[in-house]
Structure formats: C-alpha cells, structure tokens
Amino acid sequence: MSMTKLSMLGAAAVFMGTTAYAGCGVTSGTVNILGNDFAAIQAVAEGAKQCAGGGVTVESNLNKDYRDLQIAALTANPAQYSTVVTTNAAIVPLIGEGLIRPLDDLIAKHGQNISKNQLITVDGKVMAVAFMANAQHLFVRTDILEKAGVDVPTTYEDVVAASAAIKAAGLMEHPFATTSQTGWNLGEEFVNMYLGFGGAFFKPGTAEPNANNETGVAALNMLKALTEQSNPDFLTFDSNAVQASWEAGDLAIAHLWGSRGTGILDAEGSTDEVVSNTVLVSSPTVGGGSTPASSLWWDGFAIAANVSDEDAEASFVAMLNGISTENVKANNDAAVWLVEGYQPSAASAGVLATATGGTKPYPMIPFMGLMHSALGAELSEFLQGSESAEQALADVEAAYVSAAKEKGFLQ
Amino acid sequence: MSSTIANRSSRSLIVISSAFVLLWVIVASFPFLWTLWGSFKVQGDFFSKADWTQALTGTRTLIETGGTFTGKGYEGAWVQEEFWRAAINTFIIVFFTVVISLTFGTLGGYALARSGHNYSFWLLMIALVFRAMPHITLVSGYLLPFFEWNLWGHIPTAIIVLVAINQPFTLWMLHSFFLNIPKDLDESAKVDGCNQFQAFRHVIIPVMWPGVITTGLFSFLLAYNDFSVTSMLLSEENRTMVPAIYGFLGSTQEEGNVMFAVASVVSATAPLFVLVMFFQRQIVSGLTAGAVKG
Amino acid sequence: MRHKTFLWFILPSLAAMILFIALPLVSVVVQSMYIEHEQVLVVTENCGPFGCTQESSVDTEATAQLRAEQPLGRFAGLATYFDRGHLASSEVAEAWANRESLGDFFAELYNLPFYKALAFTLTYTFVVTPMVIVLGLLIALGVNRLTPALKGPTIFVSLLPMIITPLIGSLILFWMIDAQGVIGKSLQWIFDDPELSLKASPPLTWITLIVYGIWSGAPFAFVVFYAGLQTVNSDSLEAAMIDGATKWQQIRYVVIPHLMPLAVFISLMQLMDNFRVFEPVVGFSAQANAPSLSYIIFADMRSDITRFNSAAATSVLTVIGVTILLAPVLVRTWRDFKGKAV
Q1: I need a labelling partner for B229 at 20 to 30 A (CA). Which of A63, A123, B276, C250 fits?
Q2: Could you tell me which residue ranges the ABC transmembrane type-1 domain spans (chain B) (predicted)?
C-alpha cells in the first residue's frame, strides 16, 4: 500500500471519528443491538456506536443469555431491538417465527462492500450478514507427539492411536480431551462426528429423525474410543475446563473451539514449554471420509422485522460500520473475521484449515436444535458404559420425536 | 456422687462439643478463606491444575506479575469491567426490594395473623404453593408482556417482580411473628377507640422490629443472591452483580476471565460480612421473638 | 378482623402476588395443555460463507396463517404431561409389561429423563432435609455452650455458607473438588487412591451434591435453632437437673420438645427448597449423573429452540410434587390454625 493511500485511510478514519453520522451515511433512526457478550461482538457494537449523533441513537445490550431474550424481544411490536447478532443455530427460530426481515433492498442500497460469501441466504433471500467464523479443530503439542514418535494426526483413528502411544510411552495418563460436558457440548461433539461420517440427521425433506443407524453407531463408538483416552471426568468438560488443562500442560491433543486459540497462544496462564509447542491444525477426518469431522459456525447480524424501515436502515448501516475494514483491522485478533482486510494469524490457522478442508456448516434446520438437545441429554450413559449404542440412539430418537411433536414438526 | 458423674460427663461433653464447633467453623469457612487467598493470584495458580500447592505459594503469579500477590483480578473487575456499576444497581434493587417487601409483608402478615377466618389459612397455603413455582418458568412467562409494554430492562420492573416472588416467604415469617404478639395489645387499643389501622400503627409497629429485621435479612439475601430474575429481566446497563459475575465466566466458544469472577465474588461477599456482623444480634433476637414458630 | 379491613391490609401483598405469580401460574398451566401448530415445511436452498445446501425450513407465511387462527396453538389436553419427556405413561406401561424382574423395570424407568431426575431429586430432598436439621441442631447446641466472647465470631462464620450465591458457591467448590484441586487431592490422599475423582461416577456425584446441600443448608437451621435455644425455659431445665437428669436427658426431654415447632418450620422450607435443587447441579456440572427436576426445566428453556410447553408441564408437576411433600406439614398447620381460632 502506498504512502498516499495510507494517509488517506488515516484521514478517513479521523473524519469518521469526528463527524460520525456523516461518515455512516444515515441521519435519523434508532439502533438497538442485542448480542452475545464477548470481545469480537463488543468491538462490533463499539463500531456501530460511532454512527450515533445527529438524529441517530445507537444502544446495545450484550448478554450471554441473548438467545433466551431474542424471541420475546423481537416478537414485541415495535421490537425492543432493531438488530441482533446471531449464529447459524440461533437464527433458526428467528426465521421460523418471521421475526427478521429480508435484507436484499438494504444490501442493494448500502452493501456494496459486503463480499458475496458473507451473505446468509434462505430460499434466495438474504436474511443475515455474517462477519466471523468459528469451528472446533485440533490443538496438538508437537513436543509430546515427537517424544511418543507419532505424527500430527489427520484422522480420528490417528488421534486414538497417537493418544494410546503417548499413554504407552508413559508421557501422560489422559492425553486427549474435548468439550464433552453433558448437554449442548456433548451434543455438538456427536454432531461433528456424525457429519464427519457423512451422516444426515433427518430423512430428506421431513423432520423424521435418522440417527439410529450404522453411521450413528460408528460415530458413537469413535466418541467412546476418544473419551477412553480422556480424563474420567470428561462428562464435566466444557471449554473452560479443557483450556485450563491445556494451559497446565496436562493434554497433548484437544479438539477445541478455534476462538480459544488466542487465549491459549498468549503467554498468560501457561508455561513457555506449552505455548511454544502448541500448534493449531485442521479438525481430523473420520471413517475414511474426506471432510473434517467438525462443523462450521458463523456469527452475523440480522435486522428485526417489527421495526420501522427508517430504524432498519439505520441499524443496517450502523452494523456495517461495526464490521468495517478499519474496525476489523483494529480488532484483528479478536476473531476469525470474514471481512476483507482481516490478516490471518497463528491463532486462526486451525479454523481456516478446517474451513478449507470442506467441513460442513452446522445445519440451519428448524428442528436441529431439538435433535441437538436430545443428543446432549441422552448420550452420557453410553459413554459411561451403562448402555448400548443402539439403546442410546433409540433414546435420542424417542426424546427428539416427543419434542418435535410438541413443536409441531412431527404429527 | 451423682453430681461428680454428671460433672465428668459434662466436661467430656464440653470437649466434644467444642471440637465439633471448631470442626464446623473450619468446614464453613475454608472455601471462603481459600477463595479470598486465591483471588490475589493469577488464574494458573487459582486452578493450579499442575500442583495444588501452587495456589498457596503463587508460583505462576510470581512468574507472570513479579510478586506472589496481585490485585489484577480486582483491578480488572472494578476498573476495566466497571463492576461498580453492577454493585450500585444491586444496592438500589436490594434496598427497594427489602423496603417494599417488608411494607407489604407487615401489613399482610398482620392481617393474616389477626383474622380467624378460614380464607386467611387458605391464602397462606396458596402463598406456599406459589413459593414452590420454579422461578425460571415464571420469568420466561414475563418476557413477552414486558417487551410489549416496554417494561423490560428497567430497575423498577425487577424490583416489583422480586417483591412479588419474595412475598410468600415474607408473609409466612411475619404472620407467625405477629401470632406471637399478644392479641390483647391491639384489642385494648381498639377498646380505647382506635380503628384497626390506628391500633396497628400505635401499638404493633413499636414492638414488631425484631421480627421485621429478621425477615428483612432473609429478603435481603434472596434479592442479593437472585440470578434468574435479574439475569433475564435487566438490560446491560442495569445489570446486577450476580449476572455480571456469571458473565465473567465466558461461554462455550468464548473465553471469559475467571479471576475477574473470583475477585468479584469476594467483593460481592464483603458487604454481606459487614451486614451479618452488624445485624447478627438482631437476627437472633428477631428469631427468638418468635418469628419462626411454624 | 372484619373482611373489609382484612382486604385493605392484605391488598398490596395480594395484588403483587396475583399479578406476578398467580396470573403467570395460570398462563403456565394453560400453556402446558397446548402444543404448537403444525409447522409447514418446505425444502429451500440456504447459502452462507461455507457454501450452499438444500435444507428444510419453515414456510413462514403458511405457518403464520395457522398461528393467526389459533394463537395458543393446538389443544393437547394432558398429552404433554404423559409424553416421554414427562410421566411417560406408555413407556412405563411397556416397561412393566416387558419386565424380566423388578430391577429390570426400575432400570427401564431410570432411563426415562423425568424419572431419572425424580430419583435424584427425591433422594436429595430426603437425605439433605433431615441431615440439615440434625447438623443445624448440633451446631446450635455447640455454639450455645461457648463463652460469650467466642459466640459472635462463631455465629458469623457459621452463616457464611448460607449467604453466598448458590450458583457461584457451588462453582467454587467444584473447582476445589477437581482431581487436581485442594479437596480432590486431599481425598485422594485420605483414601489412598490416586485415580479417585468425585466428578466421574454417579454415586460420588450424588454424594458430593448432597454434602454441598447439607453444607449450604445447615446455617439456616442453625440460626433458627440457636434463636429457639435462647427461649428455653430455664426453670424446666433446672427442675430436670435437680431430678438428676443428665445433660443428654435434659436435651432429649426438655430442649428438643421445645424446638419441635422450629423443626417443623425448617423442614417446611427445606423440603421445598431442596425439591427445587438446581444451582448445584449446574455449578457442579452434574447434569449427566444427577439431573434434578429444575434442571430439566432449565434445559427445556435454554436450548436453541425453547420448549415452553414442556417446561410448563414439568413446572406444574414440580408444584404438585412439592404440595404432596408438604401435605403432612400443611395438615398439622391446619389443625394449629383451627386450634388457635377457637
């Protein structure tokens, strides 16, 4: 980039900072943002707030429990929030209840800088704009793998073998961990594994469950083989627990969220030995499949249906300002951004490798959440060894069917 | 003869009971001392996955901060994350919740205690059933109407909901307390020409304080420790301490800052220490006066 | 007291309870009897940063029309109460019909989420409640014998477990009982078993939760009993001493009867609170081994798709459960009430 261009960018930033609303291009409207509470979304909300001024007000409510609030908040008319920051799982009920509006006209008017792959379209209509990606992938300790004489695993079969080799070499008692806490986390592990085996959760075009089959049993058996290499407390492991164990040097291989990479690779909380030997690689494949056994997630924003067109436009423009190239550059390491201008770092290597490997996105199906809850609740007995895989999957289907009937997806 | 046996057995009884109390004091306070100590360390030491003695010696704290104690957790929570806002919100909410709860509760409890009609018993029973309702279900039911009427997120809304949720317990405690104040007191006032409210004001109010203070302490704890109501009904700028601490813990995908949470837990417990120290005589005297005779 | 005066006194309290508890309660009961509309599904092409897929989605317009016709959803009566997620009548009947032994039947029952949660909830309630009363009484008796100078600080320390937020308190203890944590390591040393983990096996998780329940519940019982001890009639104690009663006999025949009404009050509150045990389950990540009824409600409410009807049905069942548990105490209170009124 030439010097003149750089200084122009700088000048533009200063200009935007001082007369913000002129820079954002809206003169009136109320923007109210609802979203999850973490660094990347805080940065986006801050960016959006720079559009405040003149006739524009921008407020935000970042809350860990945003998912429990969003339906009620957007059902009210006028909606309490004009825009929500959401994910591929959390957006599903919003679409299903018709609470967010198609963005095509707003994109035509303001969205020249949005790249095509940021658009989330349902049936040809843009429903959200994605700005960051996440996925679970492998974290490995190269020094331990070297001592045990094994390569960085690329398949789950390798992961099991490598863990066994590390154990046999007496290096670690429980070398592997993943987020296997009963509930949402365990459900997510099964989803990853089942997608890796090429499974489909539902019979095509219907809401009939399709998990109790050979693929499901294979996925469960692989999960069990993995948890056998894990600490016996594995049913209590959430991301915080796995990260803490990793930083303490208790683990050699972990399947963990890419968003945890930055925290693991910084010097805080861990020894130099652990940090310098930690490498983030793609999620492994399983069962001879070609795509990694993980699922891709995005975070993006959607605009409420029950607000005035004026507020919707102001919200759209303000959120675009929140995910502007300048703002992303200023917060480069906070996330794996999908926005132009993002510089990949060591912390994002795993997510990018997993994404380029052709990993499937987490299914955006209206009844997937019910399946996920059923999986999270019914699989722990099998992993503890008190139930057969077939019984566990039958329980999952039974729990799902009773939930889906109640929600009107099955009759 | 028999008295010496009694003495000897009572001496050993004293030893046993003192030892038991000592054991209980250790069991009750150990997690607090541990957390207090750990709040001045870094996360690596607080969890000390490698070796638990590091939590005592502060090995990682020394490496990361250059000293064996650090105020980083407190600084992060109070300065960087502005935990003081949550503290102020909490005190506003708790103060009004306690005052309103007690006002409503004294009037209602008094009426229940003085009315011999069957319906007052059934009211008490229904209040008890109300208390059995899981809060999370109640709170989810509020969401849509509150959003519709633009009541959601405001401090007064949370206060009135907490008051309502506290009412069954407050009514029960104060009702049993008023049962123990002799009926003759207000009866004689009424004979002197007071109406029921004047009797309440001039005769009952002066003698009811121990019971009210005890009940107040329990409603204080309920409001102070509440999570389900405050986390779901308050907007970000009105958030109270407990949801704020919960927010520090991070979520599945995103890392939180556990040491901020630990430091704020200690900070949030500190006012309670003061409160209990200050009111412990009253708690006991209030209970003694019969607030809890079932 | 006249009806009208009574009404004026109780009005603020009653209004708050009707508005914020009774009306929502009615709405919860009503909603538990409805299920959602049939959702009209269509297959659409959905695209995102990671490519396009053919996926099912809800036909919003068609579903909205159904919704406008019946805003509450489809009436299902008690169907939700008897489905697999709740009382599971058909599964229970089937398990009974196909049972090989009684143990086999209970194993089948334990595989159903509601009964698994009920088993833990009842065990927790019936172990913790009496233990809290006994422990609270012992502490109260012990503290009562201390010299006055020691009493103040001891009372203060004894109240600590009660005053910390349960969600945070259980989380802190969860960190301490970790296999690497201070309590976890100490237990490994005491039992001489380096692999001992309180989090892994169901029985140990149950015991951990129960111990936590006793720890956090005891201060309430203690403070109530301690206050009660201050009012023990010293004349009757002296009379007992003159009659040659030992300390134990004094406690057995004078103190305990005096404290009985307080024990009733404590058990009332404790039964109710323990039956709703929730925070420790989340704090200790014990949902795999020890889910409680309140946890099931929480899981229904806080998933990607909120199942309010199901949560409402579990809530109503919880309230009914509490009422059944409290029935003996309530009957006793009714008798007291009639006795006083006469």
Answers
A1: B276
A2: 87-277
C118-133 pLDDT per residue, tens: 999 999 999 999 999 9
Please, what is the end-to-end C-alpha distance for chain C in angstroms?
14
> Among candidates B217, B207, B216, which has minimal Cα distance to B289?
B207
CB pair distance less than 8 Å for B236 and A184: no
Whether residue B217 sits in one domain with residue B111: yes
Q: What is the pLDDT of residues A118-130, one digit of tens each?
A: 999 998 899 999 9
The answer to whether residues B111 and B244 belong to one domain is yes
Q: Choosing among B10, B24, B215, which should be mutated to test the C contact, i.e. which has the most C CBs within 10 A?
A: B24
**Hey, which chains touch C, using 3+ CB pairs under 8 Å?**
A, B
Chain A residue whose CA is closest to B235: A61
Q: Are residues B147 and B245 in the same domain?
A: yes
Domain boundary among B75, B96, B118: B75
Domain count, chain B: 2
Q: Which domain holds residue C102?
A: 81-111
C-alpha distances in angstroms, C238 versus B288, C145, C229, C241?
A: 21, 16, 15, 5
Q: Is the same domain home to C290 and C203?
A: yes
B224 touches chain A (CB under 8 A): no
Q: What is the mean pLDDT of chain B?
A: 84
Q: Which residues of C touch A405 (CB under 8 A)?
A: 35, 83
Gap from A105 CA to chain C (nearest CA, Å): 18
Is the same domain home to C205 and C307?
yes
pLDDT digits (tens, 9 = 90+) for C248-299: 888 888 888 888 878 887 888 899 899 999 989 988 989 989 999 999 999 9
CATH of the domain at C175: 1.10.3720.10
Show the tokens assigned to B8: 């000897």
Per-residue confidence (pLDDT) for residue A302, from 0 to 100: 97
Q: How far apart are CA A252 and CA A274, in angstroms?
A: 9
In a domain, C4, yes or no: no
Q: Distance, in angstroms, between C264 CA and closest chain B CA?
A: 6
Residue of B18, B39, B137 for testing the chain C interface, max C β-carbons within 10 Å: B137
User: What are the φ/ψ torsions at residue C308 (nearest 5 degrees)?
Assistant: -65, -40
Cβ–Cβ gap B293/C262 under 8 Å = yes
**A46, B145, C294, C302, C337 from C35: Cα distances, Å:** 41, 20, 21, 18, 42
A390 near C CB under 8 A: no
Which of residues B75, B99, B129 is at a domain's end?
B75
* Mean pLDDT of successive 10-residue stretches along chain A, which has 411 residues: 39 39 74 91 93 89 88 90 93 91 94 89 92 95 95 96 95 94 94 95 92 96 96 91 90 94 85 92 94 94 95 94 92 90 90 92 92 94 93 96 92 84
Residue B42 with chain A: CB contacts under 8 Å? 268-269
- Enumerate residues 7 to 36 of chain C having a beta carbon within 8 A of any beta carbon in chain A: 35-36
* Cα dist from C260 to A212, B101, B287, C223, C329, whole Å: 56, 28, 15, 15, 12
Alpha helix segments (H runs only) across A97-232? 104-110, 142-148, 156-168, 184-196, 214-228
Question: Is B49–A63 a contact, with Cβ atoms under 8 angstroms apart?
Answer: no
Q: What is the span of the domain harbouring residue B37? A: 2-75
Q: How do residues A310-365 score in pLDDT, each as one tens digit?
A: 999 999 999 999 999 999 999 998 889 999 889 998 889 999 999 999 999 999 89
Assess whether C99 and C157 both reside in one domain. no
Burial status of residue A318 (CB atoms within 10 A of its CB: 0-12, 13-18, 19 or more): buried
Domains and CATH numbers, chain A: 21-133+297-343 (3.40.190.10), 135-295+352-406 (3.40.190.10)
Q: Locate the chain B residue with the closest alpha carbon to A41.
A: B254
Q: Do B277 and C27 touch (CB under 8 A)?
A: no
User: What are the distances in angstroms from CA C235 to CA A159, B141, C240, C254, C323?
Assistant: 76, 55, 9, 11, 40
